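Hi team,

As requested, here is the filled-out complex form for the glycyl-adenosine-5'-phosphate run. I kept the field names the same as last time so the parser does not choke. Let me know if anything looks off before we queue the next batch.

— J.
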Amino acid sequence: MTAEKLQTPDSGHPPDLMDKIVSLSKRRGFIFQSSEIYGGVGSVYDYGPLGVELKNNIQQSWWREMVFRYDNIVGLDAGILMNPEVWVASGHVGAFTDPLVECRNCHRRYRADELEQVAAGNLEAQQCPSCGKTGEFTEPRQFNLMFKTFMGAVEQEAATVYLRPETAQGIFVNFKNVQDSARRKVPFGIAQVGKAFRNEITPGNFIFRTREFEQMEMQFFVKPGSEDEWFETWKERRMDWARSLGIRSERLRFHQHGPDELAHYCKDAYDIEYLFPFGWQEFEGIHNRTDYDLTRHQEHSGKKLEYFDQAANDRFVPYVVETSAGLSRTLLVVLADAYDEEEIEGDTRVVLRLNPALAPVQAAVFPLTKKDGMPEVAEKLAADLRGSFNVFFDGAGSIGRRYRRQDEAGTPFCMTIDNQTLEDQTVTVRDRDTLEQTRVSLTGVSAYLHEAIAAARNQF
Ligand code: GAP
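And here is what came back:
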């Protein structure tokens, strides 16, 4: 860990932001602790009604960017369980490890590189951050992060399979299938979104590091010799995408991996980092994986994974430039960057300033009162909008409180049916960010929303 990473710079976030995000996530139904009624389970989270919408919207924006936008990228959805030889070939069985130390006094386990004195080799001088005892740490041992399970009816070593620790290998082993069936010429890419599992020694910071998470990965297969240029291209494209989500530029930066940080398969790697309340941390990596993976799978499977360039009459194993983002971690970035508090009339307004195209609910519809047919008009408007948007109908309670609830959900537009609606068939549209209220005709609300969401989406 570099000195730069040990400091926690002033992130400009509201105080205690992580606690506030955890609390809002539960209160509004973004994220719950898994198996909460049983006391939870080590660092796994469930996405509630708002969380699953936000996650889907981030995922779709990534998919549109990667698969729809470039004509040389296609999608894949591979299985989580794979032939265990995949993980021998990829190097994960042998090398996907973290150094683990344990305090003999309280039995808390730590990653050795997270404890300053242990990392420097001074085990005797290290005090346990949990129980305070000095010099009680075991020698570091390598701990494999892959979860094991058994396939079939026998629980024996021969039937061991792994939950994938990255989605990438599903892409590598399908390289030939996809290239042949989709008739792609190098350079081309394969994109995938899915679950990955790592038995992290020290998970934490809410959904930042969890044992079950989702990745959005793309492997771009290129001719050897062109990988450096493609690496630069993908670095820029990925940073542009992060900015297009609305994440503040001043909280984004690149971090190049030093020799001590590079994964076993990498020649060069850059992280895209976000300035979290707990410091600069990665949420996406761009990696030059050379021909490491395809060559290893070729050797271990005995199947040729070469590409034949007909025009040049040339046969080669492609190099790979990988873009690998955490979907759940990107969601935390989006939440942290959108969370805002402002004082209004002696009260604190909590608002998620989400890009409207990412917002879980795009429009809320309220009848001002339960009288004069307002609920019926509001219900009809909500029903008309539902085909195109995720709409929330809220028919009771003070209008102020209804607005505040939607502010916390990040809903960009609230439509209120009031007395004037009954006279002139217009509704109040209240903007989440500016709090401005405009009148829009009932028949024009759909077009208004379409335009606003399309404009927000065009930023992607
Ligand atoms: N295929 C390359 C690969 O998996 P990685 O840097 O290990 O690279 C890529 O992971 C991304 O996956 C990270 O930038 C992060 O966003 C996400 N990620 C990794 N481990 C995670 C964890 N335990 N919890 C949540 N997200 C994680």
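Two things worth flagging: Residues 166, 168, 198, 200, 209-210, 213, 215, 217, 282-285, 322, 324-326, 328-329 surround glycyl-adenosine-5'-phosphate (CB under 6 Å). Residues 58-89+149-336 form a domain with the BirA Bifunctional Protein; domain 2 fold (CATH 3.30.930.10).

Thanks,
J.
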